[in-house]
Amino acid sequence: MPIFEGCIDIDVPIEAVFAFHLDTRNVPSVTPPTQQVTEIGGTFPLVLGAEVQMMIRQDPIPTAQPWKIRVTALEEPTLIVDELLDNPNFVHFIHTHRFAPNATGGTTLTDHIDWEMPNSMAGRMATPIAKGILEKVFTARQERTKALLEAKHAGSV
Fold first, then answer.
1. pTM higher than 0.85
2. Number of C-alpha atoms within 13 angstroms, CB side, residue 59?
3. Does 77 sit behind a cis peptide bond, omega within 30 degrees of 0 on the bond before it?
4. Helix, strand and coil percent figures for the chain, each rounded to 5
5. What CA dihedral angle connects 84, 86, 88 and 94, to 10 degrees?
6. What pLDDT score does 67 carry?
7. In the chain, domain spans
8. Which of 24, 71, 94, 125, CA to CA, is 20 to 30 A from 111?
9. What class is the 3-156 domain?
10. Pair 88, 65: CB distance under 8 Å
């Protein structure tokens, strides 16, 4: 099963970074231009067992695809795990967000994604392409999260 893992240090206290991630409506603000979140609904802030529905369009696919996730673990302020319940492109997708205080008083954010496409000819052919897209999207999301939260935090200090 493919795995993506990326870490970034954010110069914002862990409570603020965690709170930002509890509201999935923030996803469009950190999503890179190659991906558009066209709809989002659910329970916010997230709680254990909460379900979120999104429609996401990923270049070069011309139509938005459904993403339905459920929060399967939540430990304030260090962990959020969401598991994909419905998407036509993945048979398995678990996204673990880990938050840890760092030495500078900020937060180390780690995204760990364990995913798998269908075991079909098309799925096997698409896996390397999907891997590249996931790596680019989640690296960009981390960078955009850092920039957004650090700018907000600097304005509130």
1. yes
2. 7
3. yes
4. 30, 40, 25
5. 10
6. 94
7. 3-156
8. 125
9. alpha beta
10. yes
